[in-house]
Design brief:
74% helix; 0% strand; mainly alpha
Length: 70
């Protein structure tokens, strides 16, 4: 998946029930990170705990990513 594909998925599914939304959102952070856009990656990772409060595994993965970023 590419950054534009992930961004389009997020835009198209915001406010809708979708089993893949959280994981794609996290993946978007990973893609930003790989692309060198650390600020955007941090923004994604930081928002996951609030947006996906019922998904502890997703939150843990986001926190792991945050911990290793400068």
């Amino acid at each position: 998946i590419t950054i534009p594909e992930a961004e389009n998925f997020i835009q198209a599914n915001t406010g809708k029930a979708n089993a893949y939304f959280g994981i794609i959102y996290l993946r978007l952070g990973e893609l930003y990170e790989q692309d060198g856009d650390v600020a955007s990656a941090k923004e994604i990772y930081s928002s996951i705990e609030e947006l996906f409060a019922g998904e502890p595994e997703l939150i843990a993965r986001a926190k792991e990513h945050l911990a290793r970023l400068p």
